[in-house]
Amino acid sequence: MTVFLKLFALLILLSPGASAFECPQAAQPGAAAAEKAEDCPWAGAARLLGEKADKNENLEPVFAAHAPGVLRQLETDRASGVLGLWGESINYDELANGVIVHPGILSFIASRLGAAQPRGKIAHAGLEHTYGYLFSLLPTKFGFKRARWVRPDLEDGLGLRRGSAGPAPAEGTLLANITCLAGSIALKDDAAASAELSKVLPHCGASIRAYASRPVRRGRLTEETVLPGGRKIVLRTDFAPFLKAAGGNSHLLVYSVYDSARGRASLISAFPVNEGFVKNAISPAGLGAGKPVQTRYNAYVEGLTGAGKFKGLRSVSVIE
Questions:
Q1: Residue 248: helix, strand or coil by DSSP?
Q2: Residue 243, SS3?
Q3: Which residues contact 97 (CB under 8 A, 6 or more apart)?
Q4: pTM summary value
Q5: First vs last C-alpha separation in the chain
Q6: What residue spans define the domains of the chain?
Q7: What is the pLDDT, as a whole number, of residue 13?
């Protein structure tokens, strides 16, 4: 980033009428979550970005002033091939009843990455769930969406180098590192997706590559259904165990979708969960044939998500 751009960003942000940067911000009465030091500078930048987007103003000065590292990572990711390993997600949390990331922020990130622009509430899952979540202001009962990246739970639990799965990694980028981490768990048994993942691995940090090179014994919840016309959809939820408990969590959940129309699986989301969450997800009561099959974790699958009630086979297996 040039010195001129940095100075320009500073002048814009200090100009009369510019909103003040505030982070952490005091929580509103009754809010589901309160900002902490770990939420900064992301939450403060998100407020400024949202204000700029509402006025159809350029967002780059805010990124340059408060998240210059993200701009550099977006340029790196643009040429790495990581985008093709992800599916689509919905920019709305039904449990929290709110938009997750300001659409203008997602649009800016998509432009910088060379990704498809969001279609209403439908966005590229990789960019939304990584960089997008850093700038989410939606409080949920689980905290803010960025917690999975700004806290060290994943790294400590999986034995990774501190910061390697965070927003400012010493090697790789947030999107590339999470793609390689999640992909090494969910995509290795899919020949087509695994071949694409192998092309992305050189763009990831050494700690992530080391983890990806090892076999991971994990549990998988599989939900299969067939849409009208014969298109097969398989929703796959992998639970990779932590080496040790971290932040109250015991596993990394990786959600992916196999779509016969695409011919391979695509990543949707990844986040840490606790033992109780895992047990509830794979409860025997929900397994078997003729069970409801629906997308979860903000995933969007055309023809399935919001398209009616579907039933299919839900099963659990252990994958080496």
A1: coil
A2: strand
A3: none
A4: 0.92
A5: 44
A6: 37-319
A7: 46
